[in-house]
Amino acid sequence: MSDSHKDFDPTDAKIADLFAGLEPPADLRRRLMALTPEKRRPIWWGWPLACAAAVLVVTCLLFVPRDASVSAAQTHLSAFLQSDFELTVTGEPLARLRTWLDTQNVPSGADLPAHLVGIQPEGCRVVTWRGRRAALICFPTASGELVHVVMFAKGTFPELPTSPQLSANRAWNMASWSDANADFLVFSKVDIENLRRFLG
């Protein structure tokens, strides 16, 4: 007799005979599965939240007033012009300032108001607002105050009028307009009427 049958006695044979005719119920697997708690899939909110955020951003962009960008630029530049800033090029005639500004790829003031063109400028430099580079030329006045002319690329502020629009804040009298070559933002502490004359 082989080793696999050494421990197989008559009692084992009787038990095997008893179970030989038994068959498991056909739906036994289904019953067993029903006893196992169903694993619920977690709710993933990432995609719906991302869509909602995108809709909110687009809505904000569509309904922000167009002139908000001009106001923001004026606020930024107002603070900058009150700081202890330095001019890059000084002591040069306007023509040379324009040549230097051309090398910096910013507007050079080809269409500056005629009254300003006749004044020897203090100097110029490049300024930046929200990644946009602009030219700054500073002109002296008889009162000792300066007229700061900031020139952005044409179309930076599409809502600007084509002739100087005067306004004021706590620090400056201001003017803004757009011509064929640039968008202008002007700042000065001279009174409004004198500023109007400089820009005439």
List the helices and strands and how they pair.
Blueprint: H1 10-20, H2 28-34, H3 46-63, H4 68-81, E1 89-90, H5 94-103, H6 114-117, E2 123-129, E3 132-140, E4 146-153, E5 165-168, E6 173-178, E7 182-188, H7 192-198
Antiparallel strand pairs: 1-2, 2-3, 3-4, 4-7, 5-6, 6-7
The gross shape turns out to be elongated
Rg of Cα set: 40 Å
> Treating each run of at least 4 consecutive H or I residues as one helix, how many helices?
7
Total count of strands = 7
In what range is the share of β-strand residues? Answer: 15-25%
- Helix and strand string, N-terminal first? HHHHEHHEEEEEEH
In the CATH scheme, what's the topology name of the domain at 66-198? Phosphorylase Kinase, domain 1
Residue-averaged pLDDT: 81
What about the largest sheet?
7 strands, antiparallel
Q: Give the full name of the CATH homologous superfamily of the domain at 66-198.
A: MucB/RseB, C-terminal domain
CATH class value of the domain at 66-198:
Alpha Beta
Note down, in words, how this protein is organized.
The protein is of the alpha+beta class and 200 residues long. It has a domain at 66-198: Phosphorylase Kinase, domain 1, CATH 3.30.200. Helix content is 36%, strand content 22%. It is built from 7 helices and 7 strands. The chain has helices spanning 10-20, 28-34, 46-63, 68-81, 94-103, 114-117, 192-198; strands at residues 89-90, 123-129, 132-140, 146-153, 165-168, 173-178, 182-188. Strands 1-2-3-4-7-6-5 form a 7-stranded antiparallel beta sheet, sandwiched between helices. The protein is elongated, with a radius of gyration of 40 Å. Residues 1-6 and 57-67 have low confidence and may be disordered.
